Amino acid sequence: MLLLAVDQRFQGMGLGTMLLNEFADQHREGPVTQLHLEVRDGNPAVAMYERFGFRAVGRRKDYYRGHDGIRHDAVTMIRDL
Ligand SMILES: CC(C)(COP(=O)(O)OP(=O)(O)OC[C@H]1O[C@@H](n2cnc3c(N)ncnc32)[C@H](O)[C@@H]1OP(=O)(O)O)[C@@H](O)C(=O)NCCC(=O)NCCS
User: Fold this and answer.
1) Helices (H) and strands (E) in the chain, counts
2) pLDDT digit string, tens, across residues 45-60
3) What is the dihedral of CA 36, 25, 50, 32, to 10 degrees?
4) What are the φ/ψ torsions at residue 61 (nearest 5 degrees)?
5) Which strand (E) or helix (H) includes residue 63?
6) Sign of CA dihedral 39, 40, 45, 51
7) How close is the Cα of 45 to the center of ligand 1, in Å?
């Protein structure tokens, strides 16, 4: 998976969590033992990932540059399957 996104009109209805559950279920029986992701620091999606069991394990300083030119760290997160 490269990017998790839900159309703005349908956000906050549980679809993002459903997609995460589906993705984890699809890989539970295979050789994959951990899920890794990276998200911009401050993205509200961090709360969703934490609730889903991801924990922050690293930080890439100034990894993202916003449209306004401001740089943001990337947070790397892991969840065991
Ligand atoms: C992140 C994203 C996929 C979540 O999808 P969603 O369908 O809204 O997620 P859910 O309805 O399952 O929300 C689960 C929790 O995530 C958090 N959350 C996710 N997006 C949020 C937002 N925009 N504002 C506030 N909280 C948000 C909340 O804690 C929410 O729980 P709550 O509704 O009980 O407060 C969606 O907001 C999105 O497409 N964002 C833009 C793209 C993006 O940033 N993707 C992540 C890149 S790593």
Assistant:
1) 2, 3
2) 999 999 999 999 999 9
3) -20
4) -60, 130
5) strand 55-65
6) positive
7) 5
